[in-house]
Each structure stands twice: as structure tokens, then as C-alpha cells.
């Protein structure tokens, strides 16, 4: 039972952050809470992110905007390990709606920097920095940056990860105004080859305005299932943070809905499938 404390504490921390501007929408091309694993130096990996807004808003909010109702998104994410603490990655995004058809959804580049697990042991500490550009169909701002701290705990039985994300546009009317967009994830390993848990994402508004009022916040909660090896697996020890197998798979499936007056995605299904080579 004591191992559940870190998971519950981190999830509770995100649940109480509501205060007094409109909140920037959550990045729906990357519905993921980061952990501190990185690829080995020279090791290549690729992930495919997909999600669909089963039911969402149909209103065009600006010229060229594509509403998210029944939108399917796909993101290809190749990444390579540089050192034991640095990984570089690229996102190539696309989307499809019944009305607009298939379209390019923009790109991002990232650098993920972590404290190696041989030092941090079961705790997770790191920072992910991204810069990218999305078309006007998705965001009015265009170029944007993201700072994603990684804080958490993981062992063979439980995981708790918190990403207190700060995002801001580099171009557009709100350039360099910082938005708070936290994400959190917790799971329990069933020891049957998979873990069951929850994920939470939010767009809470401008930091310099004391965040947005509840009516303008966006929240998204999902029930998730992840591939997870048994606690006695050789991949679980905090020896190097990479695992011992060159052929590592990642599988995540989650289903949930937005809540709150400003929620843009009433029901959503997402998957992540990844492989390290």
C-alpha cells in the first residue's frame, strides 16, 4: 500500500490546480505524459500516435480553422539516443476529418534531457524542450514552444508521472505569453503483462493572469492500459534507465472524455505504439 502514495500524491496535485483569459487548448497531437526513459546512445526508436475525437465542436473559430468533430490525428515520432541523458526526436503530424479530408498537421523537434536512472533510481527527473509549427487549420499562432518538466516515480508495481507543462506561442497575437498545461499519469501493474491506470490533461490558461476561470479551462481524463512487464523482469531495475533488450515495445491505449464548460473533446480514443531497435 505504501507504494501507492507517490502515485496518489502526484495525481492529486494536478486535480487541485484551478483558479482565475481563455485557456489554450491541450496539444491533441501528443496526448502523452512523459517519463524519464531515453534511448541508449545511438539507439533508434519510433512511435506512432493516433487519436480520434469521436464527438467534438463543429464551430469554425477563425478563418481557415478546421473544427475537431470526428477528427482523426496521426503523429509519427522517430527518436535517437545521443548520450545516457539526452535524446532527440521529431514529430510529423497529420489529421483527417470527413469535411476537410487528409491534411498535414505540422511538425515539432524536441530534446529530452533526464537524470540517468542509475543516479535517480526509481525516481524520474527530466526536462523536454520542443519547438514546432502547426498550420492555421489547427492553431492560429503557428510557431510555438513547450517546456515539459518530468517528475515521477516508477517501480515494478506502480507508476506516477507529472508533467507541469508550460507552453507559449512564438508568433501570433499571444506570442511569449505562457500557458499552464499540466498532464499526469498513474498506473498499477497487474503483473499479467499490462498495467491499468488513468491519465489527465488540462489547459488552465495564462500564468500571468493567474490562470483562467473554470468556465474557460479545458480538462481531459482517460482510462488507460499500457504494456508492462512483471516486477521481477530484468527490464525493471534502476540500473541504467534503458532496459536490457534491444527490441523494446511500447503500447498504450486510452479512452476518455473532456469535462468542464470549455472542453473541446467530448469523447476521445487514443493509441501509442512504439518500438526501439
Features:
6% helix; Porin; twelve-stranded antiparallel beta barrel; 277 residues; mainly beta
Helix content: under 10%
Mean pLDDT: 88
- Catalogue the unreliable spans: 4-22, 236-240
CATH topology: Porin
Number of helices: 2
Describe the largest sheet: 12 strands, antiparallel, barrel
The CATH superfamily turns out to be monomeric porin ompg
Structural class by secondary-structure content = mainly beta
End-to-end separation in angstroms reads 36 Å
Tally of strands: 14
Apparent shape: globular
- Tally of separate domains: 1
- What's the SSE pattern? HEEEEHEEEEEEEEEE
**Radius of gyration of CA atoms, rounded to a whole number:** 18 Å
> Which CATH architecture would you pick?
Beta Barrel
Arrangement of strands in the largest sheet: 1-2-3-4-5-6-7-10-11-12-13-14
Q: What is the CATH C-level name?
A: Mainly Beta
Please indicate the percent range of residues in DSSP E strands (runs of 2 or more).
over 45%
Briefly, what is this?
This protein has 277 residues and is mostly beta strands. The protein contains 2 helices and 14 strands; from the N terminus they run αββββαββββββββββ.
What would your notes on this structure say?
The protein is mostly beta strands. It has one domain: Porin (Beta Barrel), CATH 2.40.160.40. It is built from two helices and 14 strands, in the order αββββαββββββββββ. The chain has a twelve-stranded antiparallel beta barrel. Strand 2 and strand 3 form a beta hairpin.
